[in-house]
Every structure is written in C-alpha cells, then in structure tokens.
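User: Teach me something about this protein's shape.
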Amino acid sequence: MSLIYSIHQPSYFPWLGLLHKIHRSDVFIVMDEVQLADRAYQNRNIFLTNNGKTKFLSIPIEKKEYRHKFFKELRIADPHWGQLHRNFIWNNYRKHPGFEQIFPDIEEVLSLSSPFLIDIVVASMLASMRWFGIDTELRFQSELIYDRSTSKGDLILQLLKACDAKAYISGRGAVAYQQDDMFEANGIQLSYADFSPRAYPQISGDPFVSGLSCIDLVCNLGIENAPQYLI
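Assistant: First, the predicted structure itself:
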C-alpha cells in the first residue's frame, strides 16, 4: 500500500483541521521554504479568554526584509514572547479539566531558546500531535531535492515527486490554483481533506467558538477525549 502524503505550512499550536489532515497521512511535508503569510496561522493562532472573547497570540518576528526570506530563516524579535503566551494560557485555561495534562508540554515549547521561528512552531506541532496520538512522519521541504524555480501551482507536485509519492491529501484551499489532472498524469492519487469541525463542551465559549488552536479543545476535554474530534 502506498504511503499517503500531505503538505502544509507549519502552524503554531494548529487548529483541528490541519491536525485532521496530518492524522490521515503517513507523511506530512512541512513547507519551510515559503514566505510568511501575514494573515495566515503560521506564527499565530486564536485562543479564548475567560469571558469568551477570541484572542490572537502571535510570535513576533524580525521584520527587516522578512517578505524576502523563507520561513526557516525568520528570527524571533522579542525574547520575552514565550512568557507572555504562557501567562495568557495560564490565566485563561488553568481551571479547564485538561489543562494540567498538557501545560508542561506548553511550557516546554514556550521556553525554547532558539532564535528561529521554525523551531518553536514545529515543536508546538509535535506537542499537539502527541496529544492527539498522531505518529505521522514529518519531512521538511528544505531537505528535498526538487526544482526550486517552479511556480506555486506546480510546487506541491514537485515536492510529491521528490518523495516518489503515490497518494496525496490536499486541503480544499488548493482548488483555486492546482490542476487536479496533473496529479493523475504523474501517477499520484489525489483526494481532499473534508473536515467539518464539531462543537465540543467549551467552558469559555457561549455560544460555541470554532476555529481555535487545538489547545482549547484539549484543555476542555482532556487528552483521552480529544482524538475523536479529528474524525
């Protein structure tokens, strides 16, 4: 049976939709040779306050020429960012039933001393995957041998060919720019990840708030109940 691949930019304590795609894959390719997208969730995510308001937590980056750098090259601007995130999560989630199960992992990520954004974000993804029992292999775009002059529309295909992949799970957002028939022409079976988030018991959300970092779900339900919400 062919290994199933998926590909995406790294994401800070990712939302359930990305974890769902990783969970369905045997190998996940981390795109670390792309630029930071200002409105994406690469270096930030959404959390809830005690009063049910949404709050972005962002890892600040050095802005000088950042639009011309790969994600793997971006450096963190404020050495105290981790303490600020820790304080927010502690203040707003410490009374949740699953908090004590995962807070040591969160603290470990937030205390990492690397100056590079990629190290923190990937560590947050690995911690999140452990909480959901995901053992998918991670590979990095920067480690692959492929044509780096390729266009955005062909990049995914080039990465898959570099891995000799035969099966690929794509996100629905790629429909706008990728040509599905090119996968079939290259012997790659294409499928799409259709994830519909389900409401879960949420202490601070009334009504329920969707699209948050996975930390919210695990804090509310605990590690033992979290995986069922990826299916």
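Now, about its shape. The chain has one domain: 4-230. The longest helix spans residues 117-131. If you'd like, I can walk through any region in more detail.
User: That's plenty for now, thanks!
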